[in-house]
Design brief:
Elements: E1 10-13, E2 20-23, E3 33-42, H1 51-66, E4 74-81, E5 89-97, H2 117-137, E6 141-150, H3 161-172, E7 180-187, H4 193-203, E8 207-212, H5 216-236
Parallel strand pairs: 3-4, 3-6, 6-7, 7-8
Antiparallel strand pairs: 1-2, 4-5
Helix pairs in contact: 1-5, 2-3
C-alpha cells in the first residue's frame, strides 16, 4: 500500500530500486482517461547563466497546458535533475491534475553539480510506467509524454542506460500504456548535440530536438512546443497509437 505524502498524494516506487515518485490518489480522479506528462529540467552547474529563464519556460509550459481543451485529462509531474540530489532527481511535485498546480509557486532553480541524464530519463519514464499501470488496472485509459530538457550529456547517474531503455521499451509495448512519447531536448547544448542524439538512440527515446541557444525567445518557443506536443498526445488517446504531430524542430 503506497504511503501518503503531506499533501495527500501517494508515494510510489519504481521497480524494486530507490527511485520514487508521488501521484494523486486514483480514487480522487474525476475523468475516465488521462495523459501523463513529465517535464524534467536540468539544474546542473552549467545552466547557471540561464536558470531563471529555464524556470520561466517551465512555468509558461504548464500555464499553456492549463489552457488546453484537454486540460482536465492531463496529470503533470515536474522534476529537476542534478547529482546534488539523491538518485539525481528533485521532484517539484508528482502527477497532479492541472487544476491543483500553481506553477507561479515553483521554486527558483539553484544550479550545481553534474548531469545525471540517465537518472532523469529513468525517473521520468519509470514513473509514468508505474503510475500508468495503476491507472490502467483501475480501468482508466492512459498514455504518456515526457520532456527531458538538458544542456549537456550524461556524466553522473545511478541508473544505467539499460535501465532507461528497458523503461522506454515497456512504455511503447502497449502492455501498460496505450502509447508513450519521450522527447530529449537540447537547449544551449552547442557541441553536445551529436552526443545527445546518440543518447536518444541508445536509450530508446522517441525524439531528440535541438532547441538552440538559451535566449528568452527560444525558451518561449520551447514552452509552446511542450504544450502543443502535450495537447497532440492527449488528443491521440483512444486511437491506439501515439500522436503523429510531434515536431522535429522548435
Amino acid at each position: 500500500m503506497p504511503k501518503l505524502t503531506k499533501d495527500g498524494m501517494e508515494n510510489h516506487r519504481i521497480g524494486r530500486g530507490r527511485f520514487t515518485f508521488a501521484g494523486a490518489r486514483i480514487e480522487h480522479l474525476g475523468a475516465t482517461e488521462y495523459t501523463l506528462v513529465t517535464v524534467a529540467v536540468d539544474e546542473t552547474g552549467s545552466v547557471n547563466g540561464f536558470a531563471d529563464e529555464l524556470r520561466s519556460m517551465l512555468v509558461m509550459a504548464v500555464e499553456a497546458c492549463k489552457k488546453s481543451p484537454r486540460s482536465d485529462n492531463l496529470l503533470l509531474r515536474a522534476i529537476t535533475f542534478s547529482d546534488m540530489y539523491p538518485n539525481g532527481v528533485n521532484e517539484i511535485h508528482g502527477f497532479k491534475p492541472l487544476s491543483e498546480i500553481d506553477p507561479q509557486a515553483y521554486p527558483a532553480l539553484k544550479p550545481g553539480g553534474w548531469t545525471p541524464l540517465c537518472d532523469a530519463c529513468y525517473s521520468s519514464l519509470g514513473a509514468m510506467n508505474e503510475y500508468g499501470k495503476n491507472l490502467s488496472e483501475n480501468d482508466f485509459g492512459v498514455n504518456a509524454i515526457a520532456f527531458v530538457i538538458t544542456d549537456g550529456g550524461e556524466n553522473s547517474s545511478t541508473a544505467t542506460m539499460k535501465m532507461v531503455k528497458d523503461e522506454a521499451t515497456r512504455g511503447i509495448s502497449g502492455e501498460i500504456l496505450e502509447s508513450m512519447i519521450s522527447v530529449l531536448v537540447g537547449i544551449n547544448a552547442g557541441s553536445c548535440t551529436r552526443e545527445l542524439d546518440e543518447f536518444k538512440n541508445e536509450a530508446g527515446l522517441s525524439h531528440f530536438v535541438n532547441a538552440g541557444e538559451a535566449t528568452k525567445g527560444k525558451l518561449a518557443k520551447l514552452a509552446g512546443f511542450v504544450s502543443r506536443s502535450v495537447s497532440s498526445q492527449s488528443q491521440a488517446l483512444g486511437t491506439g497509437g501515439p500522436s503523429k504531430d510531434i515536431s522535429a524542430t522548435i
